Amino acid sequence: MMAHVTTTPDPAQPSGQAPSVTAARVLVQALATLGVQDVVLAPGSRSAPLAYALAEASRPDGSRAEGAPALRLHVRVDERSAGFLALGLARASAHVGDAPGAARPVAVVTTSGTAVANLHPAVLEAHHSGIPLLLLTADRPHELRGTGANQTTDQPGLFGTSVRLAVDVPAPVGLPDEARDVRRLAARAVAAATGARTGDPGPVHLNLAFREPLVPGDGPWPPAGTAGLSHVHGRGLPPGGPATGALPALLEPPRATGADDSTAPTRTRRRGVPTVLVAGDGASPWARRLAEVNGWPLLAEPSSGVRGGTHALAAYRLLLADERLGGAVRRVVVAGRPTLSRPVQRLLGRPDVEVVVLAPRGGDWPDAARNAAEVLLDVPPRMRQGRMGAPDGWLETWQAADAAASTAIDDVLDAGEHGPRSRSGPRVTGPALARAVARVSLPTDALVVGSSNPVRDLDLTARWATPPLVLANRGLAGIDGTVSTAAGVALGLPHRRVRALLGDLTFLHDVGGLLRGPLERAVDLQLVVANDDGGSIFSTLEPGEPSRSDHFERVFGTPHGVDLAALCAAYGVRHTRVGDVDGLLPALTATGPGLSLVEVRVDRAGRRELGERLQAAVAVAVDEALP
User: Fold this and answer.
1) Alpha carbon of residue 410 to chain centroid
2) Rounded mean pLDDT, 352-360
3) Among 95, 364, 370, 608, which is least packed by CB within 10 angstroms?
């Protein structure tokens, strides 16, 4: 966050330095002053002014040149991996302290040409997730564009509407006010990325033209001037409050109620509306408190941040099919962005259900079913104060059903005769693996979850009193960049044990994320890969129906036959293969330092039938548990 500074005039251009070098140094100084702490760099020639400036800024204390700020630099050779590494670092930055806060912007630097385009998947994820990224893309000067010059394309506007701000910055020429203009540009970029004015954080694109010479001479760094650095106060903050880099707390926490509180829920709850709170990705801690103070069942996805406590239900997506439970819901309060469950989406689309969406930031809100009755910026006082309670016995009925369902799920997963066996013991299923990962994940840990089956298996089986920090790229829910995102999270949270649960195709899609040069910081991260030799999620969808089996394996199952141990050996990553249930727990708990991979061989052939058995067992258990 930008400290309070007094504006001072710009110093003269340092002698002996090219304008491109001076502008790059001023930009790095400004970004550091504005709260940027981490920068990811992919190497290239046109971006050399920034590369040299960042390398000097990343030197240890006592060895930096006078005027060079302190920054952490991460170098990756693949721009796609670099973009997702920056995304992971930014996600992690919101969880460095004791309580979740606003994510700090992370910058990613590339050279020109296709290097810029390779950032696009990470940009799209950051756009839909509201993650602040600063895309600093080097470019040829304007006179070389459209001339057939090498590695030159039309970079301005490349990311379309996926960025909060896009500026095509002309090549510096050494004018007296250039440093001031660079600082003002940096202030605008950080304010836009953090959503300080709009409440809508996300990626920002600065396309930076540089003319040769691109390498520094013998001249010194410019003094760290402040002319042009604007204090951009966040939404709802009074003058003197936190400046650029911090978002205000838009939602006050629910007020605790006591027995003598006139606003506490009373016997009038009998006339309440049967309500559930659906917490999707990125819901804030206040969502759990709202459910608890109003006595609502909490249907929380793993990456909601609120999957814990007595009101959170693990098997909710299977319970929604029961008319006494899902069928009786008449109001849903939505926090975060739910994306995992078709039963939840069907609930949100029902005409007999009032849907209230809490959307404190941005111009859009989650309403895929197009059925929202109200979209609220803030939590109404009556909701905060627990005066929207459900009928008596509502919560208790859901809790009893969830307890019965959870026992039934465990019974099915523990029954070894339901699946094939290896020579040493029962084979592992996807849900059993997710359950084991959930059980070994402590509240002080961080768990990054890949898309497709892993996050859904975790959603079905994770039962936490106090959950770990769970992060997932649910903005677009793609499988790309997950290894790199997890590496960024691990680098950003060095005091947490970080683990990632992902499928084999997700791992292979970003296998380049394993690549770290010997000069870069080590990553302490355990990758847990459910290897079922293909895409098992399609087995649970319409293409997996037995009547459509003719082309399933080639165009949906996509077996690959890759030797993950050989891949890990090539990258110097520790590898452990688990083929049965008995070896699972020892492998998961042996995290150790550095980067390691636990490959768990998972059965894909019976995936659809396993889901059907789980659903049938839950239905029987709930019938027995409820009157």
Assistant:
1) 29
2) 94
3) 370
